Predict the structure.
Amino acid sequence: MKENNPKLRAGRIFVDLEETSRKVFAHYRREVGWEDVQIVASDPNKFRVIVILKNKKQLRKFNREVSSISEIVKDEIRKAMIRTGADPGEDVEIEFDIITRKQWNDRLFHPPTDNEIAKAHMQDALQWRGLEAVTRNVKRVFAGRCSLYYFAIIPEGDKRFRVFVFFNKDKDVELSQSQGVAEQIKDFVLEELECVGRGSRNELEVYFEFDSHENVKKECGGNYYLRML
């Protein structure tokens, strides 16, 4: 249940990325003029690398050397994944977010306008519409059928979702597969998403994960936020 779970691997590496960021920064601070770097796990085997440079001149230099920089950063991320017990394989993907110090300061110290805040709230409300009802109905229907511990559905777009189903014990996850409960939950979630107007089954893209509270405690110290990164 550990190694074939890409989201769990992303959660476990989260704790090591700060050290990885420091190593990459130490390497490039003198050679390329980096002022800071942050590496963030954005998806299974996908990472966002935020690089803060001194000025636009350094930005041009970075662009000339981006290929070699990319390989070094990927190598450090692979080492971090191995340290946390994950198998990175060859499919590590990185996306650079390159900004100057001035641009970074603008992000930090210039708050969004009222219109930007209102627009963000509206977009957030649209993405989450109907999901509270889906969650409530899943708990109502399956709480008595299995050892359901926690359920969460997270939107990643209008028709794309990540669904987390946590049972109480590791053995309950295996039972859910062998007894068909996992498939029943999948089918029910898709039906509920249709009912709340999120689209037809053919349109929906839903990524399901089944895990246990026992495993979250063991692998993430009981931290569900870390587990569901």
Observations:
- The chain has eleven helices and six strands.
- The chain has two domains: 6-109, 125-227.
- The beta strands are 34-43, 46-53, 93-100, 148-155, 160-167, 205-212.
